[in-house]
Amino acid sequence: MLKDKRIRIITGHYGSGKSEFSVNYAVKLAEKGRKVALADLDIVNMYFRSREKAKEMEKLGVKVIASQINTPAVEVPSISAEVYAPLQDESYDFVIDVGGDQVGARALGRYVNYFKEGEYDMFFILNANRPETQSAEKAYEYMVKIQDVSRAKITGIVNNTHLLKATTVEDVLRGQELAMELKSITGIPIRYISVLEDLVPQLPKDLEGEILPIKLFLRDDWML
Predict the structure, then answer these.
(1) CA neighbours closer than 13 Å in the CB half-sphere of residue 162
(2) Distance (Å, rounded) from C-alpha 44 to C-alpha 46?
(3) Residues 2-34: tens digit of each pLDDT
């Protein structure tokens, strides 16, 4: 993951697990001694946002940038000007958690001048258990819409197929098949396989993409 570009944009369909991937990715960078900022640009979905765990993330070495008005009871569609700091300061590894679909991707438009080709990565989070992305053709349609609206190019696919704590190896492998189909249509490589830590030993060793073991940071223990 250290070979990825300094700016990493995380996008995908609602409920695909973007925010969980973003948080885990940022924490792993911090564990490697990097100076990390995580921007929550999801101004569409009000549940399980990375900014909900800001204090916990900062204890783990991740600077969280959220909406300008910090109140948990009110949903404010506003993005902090702090986002510009890690865009401009090259000492940061910057992870940007973007709202789902093309609607959420519009939030990227104001920063397009910072997304120079070859100087950023944009990962498409693919969850084969989401009805809207259960086929490669449907997933491709979402990718095209996201790229058109954001004016940025997707550079990698992330197989993040899961059923939360009920996820099985079979789920992950089915998602991998879908990711391979999507790769064949788009020519975009599979960069990561995001999977719960306890399932990692059960996965085949020859899967395409780096395995990224994750924890469920954004779900409390009582949640399924």
Answers:
(1) 23
(2) 6
(3) 789 999 999 998 888 998 999 999 999 999 999
Is residue 129 within 8 A of residue 96, CB to CB? The reply is no
Provide the strand spans (E) within 62-172. Answer: 62-65, 93-98, 120-126, 156-159
Structure token pair of residue 200: 């990692």
- Scored b (16 or more CB within 10 A) or e, 170-205 reads ebbbbbbebbbebbeebebebbbbbbbeebeeeeee
Q: Considering Cα of 30, then 63, then 94, then 141, what sign does the dihedral take? A: positive
61-92 pLDDT, tens digit per residue, is 999 997 554 444 444 445 678 999 999 999 99
Which residue ranges make up each domain of the chain?
A: 7-68+81-214
| Tokens representing residue 105 in the block | 């991707």
User: Which 8-state DSSP code applies to residue 206?
Assistant: T
Look at the block and give the residue holding tokens 């600077």.
Answer: 63
Angle between helices 169-186 and 136-150 (to 10 degrees): 60
Is the CATH number 2.40.110.10 carried by domain 7-68+81-214? no
Number of Cβ within a 10 Å radius of residue 85: 15
For 34, counting Cβ atoms within 10 Å of its Cβ (0-12 exposed, 13-18 middle, 19+ buried), the class is middle
Cα separation, 175 vs 143, whole angstroms = 16
Instruction: Work out whether the CA dihedral 60, 65, 68, 73 comes out positive or negative.
Output: negative
Alpha-carbon distance values, 106 to 135, 146, 167, 200, 223 (Å): 24, 8, 31, 35, 31
